[in-house]
Amino acid sequence: MIEYVIYFFTAFIAIGVVGQAGASGLLNGAFQRGFAGASAQIVSAKFLFSYTNFETFVRACLDGSIGLSGYVFLGSLGFLAAVWVNNLVEYRQAII
Q1: At a CB cut-off of 8 Å and minimum separation 6, what does 40 contact?
Q2: pLDDT, tens digit, for every residue of 19-75?
Q3: 96 lies in a domain?
Q4: Radius of gyration of the chain (CA)
């Protein structure tokens, strides 16, 4: 389950990176945009999978080992992802 969340999260990161690069004129062709998006997602997913502290903490929150605060953390993480998605849809870029 956490693997799907990480892939979903990194897809939005890749969309943001490629969107910014396209807005600046660096990516003109469809192949270049597709290649840049796929490579950004693969690199960021590999980084997040190798970052075991974060994965272990999220797994402990999902299993209920941390208690109520773990569920609050997961809720806030989901809310943050929803805000990022809303910003990407509404403004067509990552808002920093």
Answers
A1: 10, 13, 14, 17, 18
A2: 776 676 666 666 666 666 677 777 777 776 666 677 788 888 889 888 999 899 999
A3: no
A4: 15
Q: By the 8 A CB rule, do 24 and 47 touch?
A: no
How many domains is the chain built from? Answer: 1
For the CA atoms of 77, 3, 53, 12, the dihedral, rounded to the nearest 10 degrees, stands at -50
Residue tagged 């990552």 (tokens) = 94
Residue 71 CB neighbours (<10 A): 13
Nearest Cα residue to 94 out of 29, 51, 40: 40
State the residue range of the domain holding 72: 2-91
Q: What is the pTM of this model?
A: 0.46
81 vs 8: CA distance, rounded Å: 10
Phi-psi region of 29 (alpha: psi -120 to 50; beta: other; left: phi over 0): beta
